[in-house]
């Protein structure tokens, strides 16, 4: 695997944008790392980094080479997990990219449950703006994405998806908490707390406002959903959330949820996906299966409520 070590060096420099910063991560000296990079460029007979005053960045040849490197690293991880699975011991590393609207609430309990069964499996979970999530799949930076309202589905193989009707989060002592359902205008007139433009929840709210001729002007805007819920709990306004993230999270004191009335606002869709035609490592594939099972259970539960 010594050749993979050299490839890891290139990947680390590409991520850091600096040989010095990458050397700190790799625990080697900058001069030693620079020699390794120069040796790789000499072997390829082409430069893969542009050097500039603030560090380095990949050139066109480097972009091609880094995609090859990440494909090789992902494939090696897949083979390692398959070999381990043959022996009955599941190991591996699962990389998940998610939108900021859902990552911090939907996934922690599921990850904890999975690791209780398979402690040899580790996870990295990173939240991004909606436009960046699918890019993580294309760059082989993530095995699985969990996102609300994808922008594109061309390169994503859908593992599971579920319709989500937005719920309003508000303080338990808020006057609107006495209502079983709310109108969109109620939400807009009581200091709406919203994520930035471009995120899925904001997109749905703005589309409903255009349809009804209403003005969508948030009292407070933030990409930190936990902060928006905290502000709602303090009575600063009304926030929004998704049913699946609500049910997957511990009950929050002094915070209640109310649905919108029928036809007030369109639902969105929560997706779990992977890169199209990619064979996932065993650990990632099995975790994706658990996510699909969770979606199916939630769908069945909601269907049962509707039937009653």
From TrEMBL:
Looking up CDD domains in the UniProt record yields: PBP2_LTTR_substrate (cd05466)
Q: Which UniProt keywords apply?
A: DNA-binding, Transcription, Transcription regulation
Q: Which residues form the HTH lysR-type domain?
A: 1-59
- Domain of life assignment: Bacteria
Is the keyword Cell division assigned to this protein? Answer: no
Matching Gene3D superfamilies, A to Z?
3.40.190.290, Winged helix-like DNA-binding domain superfamily/Winged helix DNA-binding domain
UniProt keyword GTP-binding, yes or no: no
Q: Which family does it belong to?
A: Belongs to the LysR transcriptional regulatory family.
The name of this protein is: LysR family transcriptional regulator
